[in-house]
């Protein structure tokens, strides 16, 4: 793998050359606009100062200019991120891929607290409206000791608006293609002369859904749904040293999909899914004499889903899946400024996770405990170091100590060098262990590793199995916990003419990666999937982004990611000539030949190349903002079509594609009134293998902000 060290050597050499070139110009003035981060006093809820690197911030202004409605619409345009479909999880399995890791390895936080509720490991980001988001913080890699070691890919922290200085309210409505409708009401006010504050918002969203499957005569690959969410926050200063805060969120989504396949709609089903998620937290912030700060917090989140599928021609309930999951989390965190240039953050807590589902057998509660310490050292303005260690213990998988370290050095005014190393630890979830689920629309079945043997035996007795693959005997009933080591090395260069360049190389070495694999074939020709550990996999590559402000109000930026994601055991099997890895077959011609290592493309659903280009413009005197954005995702492997258990050139691929987005907004009446029009996927690109990618969507919106 010669390219891995080459990536890091190139970054290091470029950094040294740039540092040399910039030495003479280090005192030159520059006017690079940085992202302003507000509400920084809520340090315990921010990842900016807590993670080693790299951190990306999307502020409220950027979200507004994009015209985004849901969280997935914001994140899909960021460098190194991709919103992907897991076809084996059904039409609703849509998640976020980060640096080659699938959605299951990315932790989603709201104000520093985790959210739950995933489908086939994917967290559906469209569940979250952006109306209440102040900023989004993205930390890549397992480099944070404070926010959990199970996030092998990284952490996305959604920071809601905290600073409330005056009473104001907002009413907004958008409508457009596919009968998409988005309505928001929100209000906030200070309490008792600024001693407290309260915020409340409500959002309603509807879409008719869409279909990109030409064989679906009636219905939708992305089902229509209605969603409603209610969010509230309140804080009050109990004393000059103590503040009590409460936050809560409730959301419900209902989707109904009627699907028909075949001539004359002979096979018709009605699929109804009700989802609800609720979270609440109580936080006490205390400042002691001597500079010690303490945060005491309890957090509860609940996710539930009820899916029913009815065969409409017979009027018979074909399947029902009712699922409820609770997570309780308590934590105490203490922060202290020590000697000059030193600061310490430490904490401990515990979790209790429960689940109720008739499709999961012999399931007990999962409990965990954790403790962490992080030390920050900043002896000079141009140098800082961060070191942390975290211990996580799981009642079923034992414990593990995970260290992390980060360095930041600015040799000259225009150049900053960064490096970090962190380890991760992720235990298998309920579904990977105990799931027994049959997709009612497509007919495939997913079985948890723990119940695989008994479930296959039951299906055989029922006459549902035509073939059991040898790999089924290799799957251990007890999945192992996944561990990883993540490296990041980067350089940031501020060039003349308000140009900023960021280059970052990454390498993730993962042991016992949990991967989905086909273990059997059913008599209806559909697959049976389960989960098994890959002994060792890796994701490595390079990210680069550049920003330029040529004129006042005009911002131009571009980003690129190069990614290699592979399973080392596949490479070893090809070298050893192990069946079935030793043969590559062209199904179109019937020709076969011995396979070589270069035939292996990589893990499924990972693009080798991804790019983005964004142009934002604001003309303040007229109150006008506009944006035009482009995303490119290179081709990626979708399915092993020739049965040799790895993706090669003769397998099924999704070809590379472009998506274009545009928005235009005008503010009137002293910025009380705002009128906006947005266009998503301007070229109307769709693909049957991307069931959640809609065609062209045009939306128009109006909002009124009430303030003095």
Automatic annotation (TrEMBL):
List, alphabetically, the InterPro entries matched: Beta-barrel_TonB (IPR000531), Beta-barrel_TonB_sf (IPR036942), Plug_dom (IPR012910), Plug_dom_sf (IPR037066), TonB-dep_rcpt-like (IPR039426)
Boundaries of each TonB-dependent receptor plug domain copy? 50-155
The UniProt keyword set, sorted, is:
Cell outer membrane, Membrane, Receptor, Signal, TonB box, Transmembrane, Transmembrane beta strand, Transport
- Where is this protein found? Cell outer membrane
Query: Which biological processes are named by the entry's GO terms?
Result: siderophore transmembrane transport
Kindly list the GO CC terms recorded for this protein.
Answer: cell outer membrane
Report how it sits in the membrane: Multi-pass membrane protein
What is this protein's record name?
A: Outer membrane receptor for ferrienterochelin and colicins
């Amino acid at each position: 793998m010669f390219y891995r060290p080459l990536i890091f050597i190139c970054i290091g050499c470029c950094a040294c050359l740039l540092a040399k070139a910039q030495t003479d110009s280090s005192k030159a003035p520059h006017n690079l606009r940085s992202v302003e981060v507000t509400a920084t006093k809520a340090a315990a809820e921010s990842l900016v100062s807590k993670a080693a690197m790299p951190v990306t911030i999307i502020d409220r202004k950027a979200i507004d200019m994009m015209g985004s409605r849901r969280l997935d619409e914001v994140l899909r345009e960021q460098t190194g991120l991709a919103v992907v479909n897991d076809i084996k999880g059904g039409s609703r399995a849509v998640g976020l891929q980060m640096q080659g890791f699938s959605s299951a390895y990315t932790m989603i936080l709201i104000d520093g607290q985790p959210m739950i509720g995933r489908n086939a490991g994917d967290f559906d980001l469209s569940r979250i409206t952006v109306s209440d988001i102040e900023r989004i913080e993205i930390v890549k890699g397992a480099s944070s000791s404070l926010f959990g070691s199970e996030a092998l890919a990284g952490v996305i922290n959604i920071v809601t608006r905290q600073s409330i200085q005056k009473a104001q309210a907002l009413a907004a409505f958008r409508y457009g293609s596919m009968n998409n409708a988005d309505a928001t009401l929100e209000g906030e006010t200070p309490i008792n002369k600024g001693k407290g504050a309260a915020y409340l918002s409500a959002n309603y969203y509807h879409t008719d859904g869409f279909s990109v499957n030409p064989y679906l005569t009636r219905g939708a690959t992305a089902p229509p749904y209605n969603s409603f969410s209610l969010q509230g926050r309140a804080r009050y200063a109990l004393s000059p040293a103590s503040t009590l805060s409460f936050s809560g969120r409730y959301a419900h989504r209902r989707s109904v999909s009627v699907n028909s396949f075949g001539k004359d709609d002979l096979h018709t089903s009605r699929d109804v899914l009700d989802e609800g998620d609720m979270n609440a937290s109580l936080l006490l912030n205390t400042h002691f004499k001597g500079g010690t700060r303490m945060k005491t917090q309890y957090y509860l989140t609940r996710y539930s889903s009820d899916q029913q599928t009815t065969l409409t021609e017979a009027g018979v309930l074909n399947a029902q899946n009712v699922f409820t999951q609770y997570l309780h989390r308590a934590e105490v965190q203490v922060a202290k400024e020590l000697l000059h240039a030193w600061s310490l953050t430490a904490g401990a807590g515990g979790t209790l996770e429960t689940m109720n589902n008739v499709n999961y057998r012999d399931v007990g509660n999962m409990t965990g405990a954790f403790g962490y310490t992080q030390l920050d050292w900043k002896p000079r303005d141009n140098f800082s170091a961060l070191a942390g260690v975290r211990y996580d213990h799981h009642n079923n998988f034992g414990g593990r100590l995970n260290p992390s370290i980060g360095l930041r050095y600015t040799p000259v005014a225009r150049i900053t060098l960064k490096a970090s190393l962190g380890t991760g630890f992720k235990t298998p979830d309920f579904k990977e262990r105990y799931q027994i689920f049959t997709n009612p629309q497509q007919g495939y079945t997913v079985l948890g590793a723990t119940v695989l043997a008994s479930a296959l035996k039951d299906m055989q007795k029922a006459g549902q199995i035509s073939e059991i693959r040898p790999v089924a005997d290799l799957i251990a009933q007890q999945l192992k916990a996944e561990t990883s080591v993540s490296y990041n090395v980067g350089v940031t260069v501020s060039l003349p003419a308000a140009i900023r360049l960021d280059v970052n190389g990454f390498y993730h070495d993962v042991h016992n990666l949990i991967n989905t694999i086909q273990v059997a074939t059913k008599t209806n020709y559909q697959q049976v999937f389960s989960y098994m550990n890959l002994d060792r996999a890796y994701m490595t590559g390079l990210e680069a982004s550049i920003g330029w402000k040529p004129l006042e109000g005009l911002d131009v930026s571009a980003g690129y990611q190069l990614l290699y994601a592979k399973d080392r055991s596949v490479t070893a099997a090809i070298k050893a000539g192990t069946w079935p890895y030793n043969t590559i077959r062209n199904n179109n011609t019937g020709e076969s030949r011995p396979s070589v290592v270069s035939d292996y493309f990589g893990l499924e659903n990972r693009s080798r190349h991804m790019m983005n280009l964004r142009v934002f413009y604001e003309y303040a005197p007229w109150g006008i903002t506009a944006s035009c954005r482009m995303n490119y995702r290179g081709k990626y492997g979708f399915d092993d079509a020739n049965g040799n258990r790895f993706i090669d050139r003769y397998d099924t691929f999704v070809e590379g594609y472009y998506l274009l987005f545009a928005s235009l907004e005008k503010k009137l009446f002293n910025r009380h009134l705002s009128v906006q029009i947005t266009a998503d996927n301007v070229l109307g690109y769709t693909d049957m293998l991307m069931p959640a990618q809609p065609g062209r969507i045009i939306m128009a919106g109006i909002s009124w902000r009430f303030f003095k």
